[in-house]
Amino acid sequence: MPIRPSRPTVVATALAVTAALSLAACGSDSLDSGGSKTSGGGGSASAAPSQTADQALAAKVPAKIKSAGVLKVGSDASYAPNEFTGEDGKTVTGMDVDLFTAAAQKLGLKAEFQNAEFPSIILGVTSGKFDVGVSSFTINDDRKKKVNMVQYFNAGTLWAVKKGNPKQVDPAKACGLKVGVQKGTVQIDDLTARSKKCTDGGQPAITQVVETEQSKVTADLVSGKVDAMAADSPVTNYAVKQTGGQLEKIGEMYDSAPYGIVVPKDQQDFAKAIGEAFASLEKSGDYKKILEKWNNTDGAVTEFPVNP
Question: Which domains does the chain have, with CATH numbers?
Answer without folding.
Answer: 13-156+256-299 (3.40.190.10), 158-254 (3.40.190.10)
